[in-house]
Amino acid sequence: MSDQIKQIAERLRGLRDVLELTSQEVAESCQLTVEEYLGMESGEKDISVSALQKIARKYGIALDVLMFGEEPKMSAYFLTRCGTGVSVERTKAYKYESLASGFRGRKVDPFIVTVEPKPEDTPIYFNSHEGQEFNLVIEGRMLLNINGKELILNPGDSLYFDSAQPHGMMALDGKTVKFLAVIM
To answer: What keywords were assigned to this record (predicted)?
Structure first.
């Protein structure tokens, strides 16, 4: 387990302890099974940004607190220089770089997402969350599956969708894909 995943798992446990909630209460309130939630809290299960966002919204905390352990401080603007956004690698295949981690009270969460290629027979991991999402491919090509509809996005292509629909992506051509994801 990476140090980052371990730290996120510790923050999840801490949040639940502070709020004096059972694992079942947190799991149910975020549409997760108890096993899924406990796997995230132990750091043994992949922790999706969508699951963290559900938990953050449900309990009224900033997503950054769960992901990075820091409360946003800026309220007028927040500048992120190229390649300097706060990053978290959920797994070896996904890296999220926050582009607005220091801005307090954000209405959206913008990330640069890097997805490493996997063998073609690897199943796509699906997630869903409240709100909407915008993806713009910066480099590489990706397959984006939204509720069974497969779309191929090339550099410069973008897609805006209802993120309550089950969705997942895969890098194509054996190459890394990098895209801007804005979660609203």
So the answer is: DNA-binding
